[in-house]
Amino acid sequence: MNREQHDQLILHTALTAGRIMLENGSEIERVEDTMIRIATNAGVEGSQVFVTITGILMALNGELGAQIEPIKKRIFDLEKVSVVNDLSRQFAVKKITLQQFSNRLDHLDSETKYFPFWLQLFAAALVSGPLEVVFRHNLPDFWITCVVGMLGWWVYYVLNKFIQIRFLSEFAASATIGILALVGVHYGLGNSVDDIIIGGVMPLVPGVPLTNSVRDVLAGNLVSGPARAIEALVSAAAIGFGIAMVLQFL
Amino acid sequence: MTITQFLIESIGTYTATVAFGILVNIPRKALNTGGLIGLLGYLIYRFTVLGGGGYVVGNLLGAMAIGVASLQFARMKRMPMILFNIPALVPLVPGGQAYQMIKNFALGQNTVAFSYLIQVIMISGSIAFGFLLSELVNRVQQRFWQQRG
């Protein structure tokens, strides 16, 4: 492999690693750090990266120009962030070669290893019910909150598959939660609409953008941090509108 | 707070944190740790509030504990820090106040809604500031480690 091909491989590996991490919910500082580490461990000192939430630019100190990698989708799959992190560590201690690293990344990109759907539903139920009890101390409504939260997540998940606009899915899911809570209380399955809704929307909380926006702003990424804060705000607003719409019928 | 209530709250917080971890697909071996950190953060918040410290200070200390503990475990397990602090933050989210705010805005009771809005802003701000303080602790610790090593 000549010099130019080697440089190209480094760029490809670093950019793919960066893109996978950003798409799946990593913070900016970690992406920058990982990409520079990959280049350094592959034998190139003084590479430059420019990472924002919608795209990455990277240049090596060789003859090749800088290359761009756009970030088009944004989902939450923190396992992939962890896998890229592991691969980068393995590459650093020379357990895998650059070519193997690149192949593993391409492979990782095409496969999704989520928890099975039934387990996600179960988890959504277990976020809703316990948090309702923790926040509101309303034990009798535990079961109905579990069911409502689970059905809300089901709506969110299915809509996300078909329309792929997260804010709309969140809106529809929270409206469903509101309606189900009203129906549940009407038929005597629960006591308090408020408590059921509070528990039921907890699985939809935009935890990843919330946490990352704080971390990005603190790290000095003044473009990506506020952008993520807006993402979290729009999510929260979508959930709020869904609930508010239902509450008009009280 | 009775012992039963304490146990129910602790178990509930732990379960909810682990379950939220499943929803954002964090690796299996990080789930338990995330749950424990979430429990730690929540208990610190709860006892601060019970001790009369107020919810702003409580959230601040809780978020700070989460930030510091996450980094320790991230270092120990050699995994990214966000795997631990994202699910751990969920029990601190001001869900109840945010809901009351939405409800009162929807019903046209703006005065009540604004007072809840202020609470939501205060809590979110104190959580963010808690993270900032934890970052400060982490940076100081890193500097200390580098100088020794």
From TrEMBL, chain A:
It comes from the Bacteria. It is a multi-pass membrane protein. Its main location: membrane. The chain crosses the membrane at residues 114-136, 142-159, 171-190, 230-249. Keywords: Cell membrane, Membrane, Transmembrane, Transmembrane helix. Coiled coil: none annotated. Residues 13-249 form the Threonine/serine exporter-like N-terminal domain. InterPro entries: ThrE-like_N, ThrE_Dicarb/AminoAcid_Exp. The keyword Cell membrane applies. It is found in: Cell membrane. Pfam families: ThrE. Belongs to the ThrE exporter (TC 2.A.79) family. This is Threonine/serine exporter family protein. It comes from Levilactobacillus tangyuanensis.
Automatic annotation (TrEMBL), chain B:
Its main location: membrane. Keywords: Cell inner membrane, Cell membrane, Membrane, Transmembrane, Transmembrane helix. InterPro entries: ThrE_2 (IPR024528), ThrE_Dicarb/AminoAcid_Exp (IPR050539). Residues 11-137 form the Threonine/Serine exporter ThrE domain. Coiled coil: none annotated. It is a multi-pass membrane protein. It comes from the Bacteria. It is found in: Cell membrane. The chain crosses the membrane at residues 6-24, 54-74, 81-102, 114-133. Belongs to the ThrE exporter (TC 2.A.79) family. This is Threonine/serine exporter family protein. It comes from Levilactobacillus tangyuanensis.
